[in-house]
Task: inverse folding
């Protein structure tokens, strides 16, 4: 691994471990699915979305995992068991870290395989975007747990 992919590997590993820690920290499993007022995304749906997004863009598009994303389910499914979500986080972490470990400098510098935001961008740029996206939702998950898991 080069310096850039090592840093990304370590950051994704750390923060996917934090997603797992947040999930396990819910005192009541049913509170994973609570929404209230302006808090429209449940903790459970945030976890499903984090995993679906990373498994699609990193695991499938870059790593060739064959994962088929069901984005509507990321927000539509309710009452998925905590144990199933733990398995999903672990599977996500495994494919993300394996894929990042195998990326070469030339792959990072090449354009991402699809045009996501209406403009071309390098794979490195888009992976950094995905890392920011992970952390945005990790913060929401932490807030959801502290606010609605009482």
Result:
């Amino acid at each position: 691994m080069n310096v850039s992919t090592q840093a990304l590997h370590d950051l994704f590993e750390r923060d996917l471990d934090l997603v797992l820690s947040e999930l396990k920290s819910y005192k009541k499993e049913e509170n994973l699915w609570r929404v209230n007022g302006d808090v429209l995304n449940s903790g459970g749906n945030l976890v499903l979305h984090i995993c679906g997004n990373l498994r699609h863009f990193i695991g499938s598009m870059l790593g060739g995992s064959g994962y088929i994303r069901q984005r509507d389910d990321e927000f539509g499914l309710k009452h998925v068991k905590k144990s199933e979500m733990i398995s999903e986080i672990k599977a996500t972490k495994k494919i993300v870290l394996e894929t990042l470990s195998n990326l070469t400098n030339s792959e990072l510098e090449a354009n991402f395989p699809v045009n996501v935001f209406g403009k071309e961008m390098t794979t490195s740029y888009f992976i950094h975007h995905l890392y920011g996206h992970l952390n945005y939702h990790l913060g929401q998950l932490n807030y959801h747990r502290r606010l609605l898991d009482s």
Remarks:
- The CA atoms of residues 91 and 149 lie 26 Å apart.
